[in-house]
Amino acid sequence: MLQLHYHPTDASLMPHIFLEELGVPFELVLVDRSRNAQQSPEYLRLNPNGKIPVLVDGDLVLYETPAILLHLADTHPDKQLMPALGTPLRAHAYKWMVWLSNTLHPNMTNYFYAERYVPAENVADFVARTEARIGPLLDQLEAQLQSSGGPWLLGETYTPADCMALVLCSWTRNLQRPASSLPALGAYIDRMRQRPAVQRASATERLPETFFKKAG
Ligand SMILES: N[C@@H](CCC(=O)N[C@@H](CS)C(=O)NCC(=O)O)C(=O)O
What we know:
Elements: E1 2-6, H1 13-22, E2 26-30, H2 41-46, E3 54-57, E4 60-63, H3 65-75, H4 88-112, H5 114-117, H6 123-148, H7 160-170, H8 183-193, H9 196-204
Bound molecules: glutathione.
Residues 10-11, 38, 50-53, 64-65, 101, 109 line the site of glutathione.
């Protein structure tokens, strides 16, 4: 059976939601961050980067969230959760998945773990500068939703990029200008939250109501 090494609220929520979308059997294996299990010798054998998630599919051990999502879509073609090979829509799905992973996600990591990157006296300034960089990135997502016309990031076609966008948007909820405060993104987050797959993954990870969107 497919195994997803996860920790609640982390990047593993992206493939967790996608596995629920696929509706296939899978097993969740908790990586206990409170015990720094992501740095244990056993876990580092799965992912030498010490990052969550990891997907185990038979003999295949896979890390890097977009690779996991694309592998899952490739191995379940009947679910049609990626546009057809070679089409412009599929190319855009690749682009957004890589952008979310490569551009927005690292900025969120800098925001949450500033103390890893700069001395203590510079943390507040680094966080403020990072937050200022995240704003225009959220504007790009907002513009994409407006131009695609929704309901999903690429328009009518739901793709794994949606799982990534939702989780990354949720991580902005305590920013001064969170994703949910932008009109198209706010409505998109609400639509995504209503998907049964998102609700099932949220229930399993015991996410609070305010995880995707701050109350009030
Ligand atoms: N590039 C990786 C990044 C994954 C990542 O940043 N995971 C975080 C949780 S959101 C993590 O494992 N952090 C543990 C740590 O840094 O010690 C991916 O896309 O899967």
